[in-house]
Every structure is written in structure tokens, then in C-alpha cells.
Amino acid sequence: MPADPTPPAVPAVPLCPSDALADGGDAHVFDLLEHGQPVRAFVLRHDGRVVGYLNRCAHVPAEMDWQPGKFLDDSGRWILCSIHGAAYDPASGHCVAGPCAGRRLRALRVDEHAGQVHWYPEDYLRPAFES
Ligand code: FES
Questions:
Q1: Are strands 95-97 and 28-34 parallel, antiparallel or unpaired?
Q2: Of the chain's two ends, which shows fewer C-beta atoms within 10 Å, N or C?
Q3: In this predicted model, what pLDDT tens digit does every residue of 46-56 receive, in sequence order?
Q4: 3-state SS class at 47
Q5: Which residue, by CA, sits nearest to atom 3 of ligand 1?
Q6: C-alpha of residue 119 to centroid of ligand 1, in Å
């Protein structure tokens, strides 16, 4: 019988306290592994809900923040890529304007409970440091 290529389930990874993410404010940036390669990701709060994405623009695979953790425009309405200005809807990750309009960010499975924001690893997205 062939080995199951699916890696074993990994428990939820606590990222930061819920109150560390102000609505429309800075993101919490963290490291993970995609197919074993280090990448950065972020979570932020938009319209009261926590969302998470890989920190990788859909135009060119580059990190998007203006400064560490700063992804949103002044209005807090859009995620803006600092390189060529692509604008993404924080709720969906869809690019609504810019050179990659119609494409989207890679979403992460995140939630918050008990005052903590969690990320749920999946198939090829794994914690940077597994115990
Ligand atoms: S790299 Fe993000 S818009 Fe070009």
C-alpha cells in the first residue's frame, strides 16, 4: 500500500492576543514553511474579523508591507502592495486594482477564540518550528 502523502495534522498555532489586532490597524507578521521553504504571512483585523494571507503579492512574488506589519492604506480599507500599488480587498484577498487585478492573495485558515488568534496549518503550509 503506498504511503499517504498527506502530512499529519498539526494543531492550531497561536499567533498573538486578539487585542493586538486593532480594526484597520497593523498586522501581526509571522514565518511559516510552504513546501518546506520559508515564507512570511500576516493576520490583521478588518471590519471586526481576523483574516490571514501569505505575504506575497499576486503580481510579483514579493512581500507587500510598507514597513513590517503595515499593509493597509490610510483609510484602512485596502491592502496595498508597496511595490507597484496593487489594492486588495482585505475580506477576500481579491486584487481590485493594479497590475494583478482579478487575482488574489493566498488565504490562510485563521480564527480567534479565548482571546487568542490562531492559524491552522494545512497540507503544504506548515509551522516554521514544529515541535
Ligand atoms: S509586486 Fe505587488 S503590485 Fe507589483
A1: unpaired
A2: N
A3: 999 999 999 99
A4: coil
A5: 84
A6: 25
